[in-house]
Amino acid sequence: MANKILVYIDHFAGQVVPASWEAVGVGTSLAEELGGDVVAVVLGHEVEEFAQNAIQFGAGGVLVGDAPELKDYRPEPFASVLSQLAAEAEVLLFPTTSRTRELAGMVAVDLETGVIPDVVAFEIKDGSVLATRPIYAGKLLTKVVCSEKRPQILTLRGRAFPKPEPDPGRSGEITPIEMELGEITTEVTGYSESKVGVSLTDAAIIVSGGRGVSNNPQLSPPAEITDESEQEIWRAQQGFALVGELAQVLGAAMGASRAAVDAGYIPYEHQVGQTGKVVSPDLYIACGISGAIQHLAGMRTSKTIVAINRDSEAPIFKLARFGIVGDLFDLLPPLTQAFKDRLGS
Amino acid sequence: MNIVVCVKQTPDTAAIVTVEDGVVSWGDAPVVLNPWDEYAVEEALRIKEAHGGEITAISLGPEDAKEALKQALAMGCDQAILISDPVFAGADTLVVSKILAASIDKIEGTDLVIFGRASVDSDTGVTGPQVARRLGWPALSLVAAISSLDPEGKTIAVERMLDEGRQLVSSPLPAVVSVVKEINEPRYPSFMGIRKASRAEIPLWTAAELGLDEISDPAVMWPDIMAPPKIETEVEMIEGETPEEIAARLVDRLMEEKVI
Ligand SMILES: Cc1cc2nc3c(=O)[nH]c(=O)nc-3n(C[C@H](O)[C@H](O)[C@H](O)COP(=O)(O)OP(=O)(O)OC[C@H]3O[C@@H](n4cnc5c(N)ncnc54)[C@H](O)[C@@H]3O)c2cc1C
Ligand SMILES: Cc1cc2nc3c(=O)[nH]c(=O)nc-3n(C[C@H](O)[C@H](O)[C@H](O)COP(=O)(O)OP(=O)(O)OC[C@H]3O[C@@H](n4cnc5c(N)ncnc54)[C@H](O)[C@@H]3O)c2cc1C
């Protein structure tokens, strides 16, 4: 019997997480090496259009589990359905997201098999996937293999693998599935959208600000702000406005160091680093960030790093491809203008 | 509210971690309570302060995992249990979740289990949800706030931190929660707490005590640990007479190198 390589398509509020297509691409290369079929799995309610997309990105077929109970993501029913589908599979792939780590782990428990989260590279060895994943916040890498139990369950870090070119001409079979949802005891009562804008983990460009973003003594806060820490936050807001303008021109997401988050300049959702988000954009512009080891842990795999810092000795310059020693308040406005001029034309 | 907090011992995050022949070392940096687990312990303490009950910290690991448990006790947990047995060596999350679930079963009467979101060393982030699955209790992962808790009605409502925003979920108890940093600000252990912890007897549970005569083999193995490839960057400093000149040069260079 042909190997079955299942790929879970993760989505939220009507949008597929782009790393799902990267996972379809990985499934395709596994199928080339191991033999077998790539089958995408789409679970939710009114999600048929994602199935079409999965075929364009390379899936041979798609299993669609549609039920009103699956409209809101909850791990228990999603894991139950996946376990039913994956029982005979050779490999089950997920993009790494805030939903899929738990799903992968729970399916592994149901099927008494191994789980390898947040994979950044792989090879085939003795018929099994030998996966590479970062540990110690990326300070080290480990190889992990699930050599006997099946399916092999992996979640794949976003932007670690290429996204296949979609081919609108491809066709494949879309099959609705029968599902056993199991007892669902939890209830989703609502959402509060975060204001992050472009998602950090999907972003091709990130502009980040650190403690330096508040450091402009020339700015004097309005007289009604008398509290010193509020004055600092006010200054930081002026600084982050400059960071935000640059981000907007570049279509970039906005990041921050923990020092900036802890000082209340910007919400935690923006934090990059060991205890924030791990990102690996094509371009990372660090403004007023010193480059502490815990910050580097979150962005060291960025393809190109630009550092803007007053202090020529700041450790961030050791990792940067391009560096500017100077005051970010002087540099960011002309930089935003220069990008606007060049990219606009 | 009886709470179990699962904690792991990890090297300090500021440590320079190196590897030689597959053996990881972190010099003389201290081992500490996994930073994420401090938030788990803190949340348990806050729930106890509001609703009463007992907090038990448990850790699976070698003898020196006691340090993490002592830190949990020093912060204010009522008791700690070390789960340790030579047969546990090499356990993957599949096996660890089985042992932790068996331990929680043995503790009895638990209303809530709290995990950190991940360990800062091997960082799989799956142990909490796996324990939930084994116990058959709801998995409430990546919780940034507990918005309500009703010990009598046995319900809990939480805000989960998804990548896209917060999801509000209500659930019956018992349940398994994993927490993110936003949930609270962990306290420092008090002097009294540290004294109490240093004297505390920490019971040891082995496989036999948990009724786990047959420990299944781990499903995954990690045959190789290595340093990441050195990132070979020679920083190119961009200079100029005015900020405008510097800005234009940087944009030129980024375009030449096809970064944008
Ligand atoms: C357990 C643990 C986990 C952690 N997790 C994280 C994490 O996830 N993410 C994270 O970022 N940190 C994390 N940290 C914190 C980390 O150690 C640093 O404290 C933090 O990254 C420093 O932030 P910063 O670079 O913004 O601030 P600083 O180190 O204070 O650096 C500010 C920089 O701005 C420069 N500067 C000042 N004014 C200007 C100006 N006007 N123009 C240009 N440059 C200027 C200065 O020269 C300096 O280099 C963690 C720490 C611990 C202990
Ligand atoms: C180099 C290396 C690579 C590994 N790779 C994998 C892998 O890919 N897949 C796999 O299944 N296993 C793997 N393991 C095994 C895994 O590290 C252990 O099973 C570990 O005990 C739990 O996983 P974690 O540290 O990732 O914890 P996480 O799941 O990241 O931790 C989440 C929370 O679970 C709790 N917790 C974690 N460990 C314990 C414990 N021992 N006692 C009590 N509470 C705990 C804490 O609250 C923690 O905050 C690896 C181990 C090593 C050394």
Topology at a glance:
The complex is a heterodimer of chains A (345) and B (260).
Chain A: E1 4-8, E2 11-12, E3 15-16, H1 19-34, E4 37-44, H2 48-56, E5 61-66, H3 75-86, E6 91-95, H4 100-110, E7 115-119, E8 121-125, E9 128-135, E10 140-145, E11 152-156, E12 173-176, E13 187-193, E14 205-209, H5 228-250, E15 253-256, H6 258-262, E16 283-287, H7 293-299, E17 304-309, H8 316-319, E18 322-325, H9 328-344
Parallel strand pairs in A: 1-4, 1-6, 4-5, 5-12, 6-11, 7-11, 14-15, 14-16, 16-17, 17-18
Antiparallel strand pairs in A: 2-3, 8-9, 9-10
Chain B: E1 3-6, E2 9-11, E3 18-20, E4 23-25, E5 31-33, H1 35-51, E6 55-60, H2 66-75, E7 79-83, H3 93-107, E8 112-116, H4 127-135, E9 139-150, E10 155-162, E11 165-172, E12 175-179, H5 191-199, E13 204-205, E14 221-226, E15 236-237, H6 243-256
Parallel strand pairs in B: 1-6, 1-8, 6-7, 7-13, 8-12, 9-12
Antiparallel strand pairs in B: 2-5, 3-4, 9-10, 10-11
How would you characterize the overall build of this protein?
- The complex is a heterodimer of chains A (345) and B (260).
- With 345 residues, chain A is an alpha/beta fold.
- Chain A is 30% helix and 27% strand.
- Chain A folds into 2 domains: 5-176, 3-Layer(aba) Sandwich (Rossmann fold), CATH 3.40.50; 205-343, Rossmann fold (3-Layer(aba) Sandwich).
- Chain B is built from 6 helices and 15 strands.
- Chain B is globular, with a radius of gyration of 22 Å.
- The mean pLDDT of chain B is 95.
- In chain B, the strands form 3 sheets. In chain B, strands 11-10-9-12-8-1-6-7-13 form a 9-stranded mixed sheet, sandwiched between helices. A two-stranded antiparallel sheet of chain B has the order 2-5.
- Classes of the chains: A alpha/beta (345), B alpha/beta (260).
- At the A-B interface, helix 3, helix 4, strand 7, strand 9 and strand 10 of A face helix 3, helix 4, strand 9, strand 10 and strand 11 of B.
- Strand 18 (322-325) of chain A pairs parallel with strand 15 (236-237) of chain B.
- One flavin-adenine dinucleotide sits between chains A (210-212, 215-216, 257-260, 271-276, 288-290, 292, 294-295, 298, 308-311, 314, 327-329) and B (13-14, 35).
